[in-house]
Amino acid sequence: MATIKGSRRRALALHATLVVGVLLSAFPFYWAVIMSTHTSSEIFSYPPKLLPGTHFLDNLRHLLDAIDFYGSMANSLLVAGSVTFLVLFFDSLAAFVFAKFPFPGKRFLFASLMIIFMVPAQLAAIPQFVIMAKLGWIGSMTSLIVPAAANAFGIFWMRQYMKSAIHDELLDASRIDGANFLRQYWHVALPVVRPGLAFLGIFTFMGQWNDYAWPLIALTNPDNVTLQVALSQLNGTHGTTDYGMVMTGALLALIPLLIVFAVGARQIIGDLAKGAIK
Amino acid sequence: MATALEKPTVTVESAPAPPPRKGFRAYWHLYAAISPFYLLFICFGLVPVGFSLYLSFHRWDGLGPMEWAGLSQYQYLLGDSDFWSSIGNTIVIWALATFPMIFLAMVTAVLLNSAVRFKNAYRFAYFLPNVTSVVAIAIIFGSVFSTNFGLVNALLQAVGLDQVAWLNTPWGIKVAVATLMTWQWTGYNAIIFLAGLQTIPGELYEAARMDGAGPVQTFFRITLPMMRPVLLFVLVISTVTGLQSFSEPQVLLQNTSNDSTFSGGPGHAGRTMVLYFFQQTFDNNDFGYGAAVAWGIFLVVVLFSIINWRLVQRRGED
Amino acid sequence: MRLSRRGLLRAGLAGTAATALGGLASGCAVPTGSTGRNMVLWYWDGGLGDTVVEKARARYGGTVDLKAIKIGGYYRSKLITTLAGRAHIPDVAGLKGEDMASYLPNADQFVDLRTLGAEKYRSRYLAWKWDQGIADDGSMIGFPIDCGPVAHIYQYDVFRRAGLPYEPDDVSRELDTWEKFFTAGEQLKRRIPGTYLLTDVNSVFENAVQQGGKRYVDRDRHFIGDQEHIRAAWALAVEAKRRGIVSDLVNGTPDQLSALQDGKLPSQLGASWATSDIKNGVPKTKGRWRVADMPVRPANNGGSFLAITKACREPEQAFRIITWMLDAANQAQGYVDAGLFPSTPASYGLRQLREPDEFFGGQVTMDVFGPAAQKIAVAYNSPYDVALGQPIKDEIKNVGVLGKNPDQAWKDAMSTCRRIADHLGVSH
After folding, report:
1. Dist CA A28 CA B139 (whole Å)
2. Phi, psi for residue C38 in degrees, rounded to 5
3. Domain count, chain C
4. Structure pTM?
5. Which ipTM did the prediction report?
6. Measured between beta carbons, which residues in chain C are less than 8 angstroms from residue A243?
7. B36, A94: Cβ pair inside 8 Å?
8. What SUPFAM superfamilies does this protein's entry cite (chain C) (predicted)?
9. Does a structural domain hold residue B57?
10. By residue range, what is the domain housing residue B230?
11. What is the pLDDT of residues C87-133, one digit of tens each?
12. Chain B hits for C71, Cβ within 8 Å
């Protein structure tokens, strides 16, 4: 009897601790809601507000006047969407080759992939800027999409996934049926690795959506930027004057990823863990 | 259109590789399949990296003509106290973020592992901070750490302590940036740890209990050793990302300076290596020196990778 | 659907090519500079009068779609990066006064305004201001917008409560030296705890430098930031810190605005254009402020220019627009809109400049800024001033904010300056 009581009490303490953690995780979201529903002078006054206010619609109106919020969101969707599509295609194709086929130079090419993986991005940043200036890409979304269209991480990750997920017997069987390389890729490999693609896709999308340093430099046309850059501009221009409005922008910018997460949560959380303990 | 597009495949066939035994013809489709990445890499990776080496031996403002500078950019880099302090800032912020994060993530994972109910709901909630936009969340954290109207200071005052000018003192800045990173990554790593915990066979715990080991002893004698590979994985990833931190300090501190986009706040206390690179390159328009700084950063990253590699190697010997 | 090997490969390659071509196409579709009617103007919040920009758009709307974009953040860096990126370069760009000299070595990025007939406007503008827009080779890249006479902007009620002089004339007369100014700061802090006279030590340092006629590098490309005029300004800033009259807030942050609103920072040494920052930043403080003379003598802080870039396809038209926007009548409007103190003496007599300003309790602010502008000391601005002034400003900030030892800070500043001077080929 006593031990049951004890274990119940322990379970309660356990859940209480976990709930504190959840509250800490969730708190900044709540804080953003509070800030985005007050005017700047309400925010600037002491003590801090702890409950939502009534000025959300005013802040929203100011926000939509100050920046092209929907336009920049569309740009972010365009960039993250096309990069995700291209990465999934190019990376899985290359990964399929590295995972399942022998060919001359394979070891060298794969080893070079690993080295490329480790080169810091800023090493290439200045020349990239100069090259793109020559190509006339600076200021357009192309400067973001093209260099990101395939990456070493994705190839590496998909290769690991494909090695175990695609059975050699299946490939042999399809070869005997007369399927060529692309048919094998399309009809044998892709259906099997769909969960892996989903993870890589969501991962790539979130990464691109959050990309900030390079867009900040490359998107020189202030009227045509991604959401992250627009938010940063907003904070730089109005961060001292119209705080409630800036907070409204920050709050709204969180929503698209939360939707992606809500849809793909199981996939992300599951595969993330799988990748780490392998 | 289609005929014009045949061409790239032909050039791909001559991609560098050791002499083939069967001839490239047999493999051309494989080379074609991996070519997009390598083409992109050559255009936006290899050539730029080579060009940046070339640039680092020049003076160039990006507009006028380039001027040969020999090794002077590197000479200047070696004596540049700002660069060295940016390395220090990066490492301090990384340490302030990483160690509490690993500790909290481990505690959370152990708790989650023993909580039977709502496990999925908890995992969902703890992962949430990681799916936010860094820019947006940095703006939000800026207001949490504000001196005059921020929540942290309001709490300090409520318990009778003095206000801290978080974004205006060197330690305050580093703590604020690190807190943001810890908040964002604790849940993420807790979920990785949780997956690791779930691979530890139950018999081991059973045996420990038979031996009369308490929960703390069990943790240190069984859980921690078994978790070593996962811990190292998390450490390696957080080192690589931590050494290149940029967005958090940039957004958090961008309004503290009128004359730099990448100042890193008062005393440049939040100016990480990558921020310093951007500042030299694009604020000061010094493309030549910027390139030298980038190579400096590269060396630091390589150094840390070697240390990491050593750690992983030792794991193999155990 | 059956996909042939070739078909899918083609699709993949077509995808790559289309992305690349799409990029090229979009690059071509938006060429550097204007397409006939479009004309892009870059400035920053408060850089031009909003009414003036609106009127220009309407007035020239028949021939030009003038698109005025406010750029946030560090303006100079964004403009230079865009010039280097060779795309989306604005046709007309504002250049901040403090950055002006650093644009001069890149004068070839801008249209020489003399070729458009700027010379005939010369007599209508302040001579020293006009000369600052001219590069060493004589080409003129910047057309004068405003200048930045500095005054003492303070909150009437707070000064009154602290037992300090509070009527503008009294403040001007009684706080006319740095010593008296600092003593007033001590009294303020004593009478109303938690209140500081100034935001940071940099406002003392930079204003003291800008009161003089010398900066950091002279015409012979020699470093003079180690000389008496800088040392004196440095000593004043250190003194302000020692007496504890500066806050630990950062200029331009929400925290500072919050303190302005609460009356905890009731005073600042600000240029004419800074009045518009206060009006926009803390509108709730309307009526609480007054303007008086700053201690010792007026300084000049900022004051900017408009330039036409080489990317502009219609430089004549752009020149017509900027000369109109910056004529005496519109400069007077700029003063009303954004506190931009006219560089056209003909504006000074106009009615708009004599209007009482309700934000300043009905004071005619021109009574202070006007005479101040007459007494500005003209300084030579070197292209290297930005690079060699920054270490000193950084170190005095360290003294103010971090409590660094002033002697050590000065030594560090000087050694950094010497290193940078060597790097840039400036003698010392």
Report:
1. 10
2. -70, 135
3. 2
4. 0.87
5. 0.88
6. 254
7. yes
8. Periplasmic binding protein-like II
9. no
10. 76-317
11. 999 999 999 998 999 899 899 999 999 999 999 999 999 999 999 99
12. none
